[in-house]
Specification:
This protein is mostly helical and 89 residues long. The chain is 87% helix and 0% strand. Helix 1 packs antiparallel against helix 2.
Length: 89
């Protein structure tokens, strides 16, 4: 196992991690932005106001994108397990 192989495996893992987490990050970002605009418009400065809408948005996104996220993760893990003989020998 060469250092190049280790770097390729790590890079692939980080790519899959970012790809799977991106929908949840975008949902939280957009929800937080909308809540912040609402708070600025109404001058309600409550820090806990954005927590529940973000939680709901992330849950809805997880339900909607969950099958795709699971497919991406299982494909990566399957490819990683199938490449074990090539990595070792």
């Amino acid at each position: 196992m060469t250092p190049t192989t280790v770097i390729e495996i790590g890079r692939g893992a980080v790519e899959v991690l970012l790809m799977v987490a991106l929908p949840l990050f975008i949902a939280a970002l957009l929800t937080g932005l909308l809540i912040s605009i609402f708070q600025a418009a109404t001058q309600i400065n409550e820090a806990t106001l954005s927590f529940v809408p973000k939680l709901i948005a992330i849950f809805v996104t997880l339900v909607a994108a969950g099958p795709w996220m699971l497919t991406v993760l299982t494909d990566y893990i399957r490819r990683l397990y199938e490449s074990i003989p090539d990595i070792i020998g």
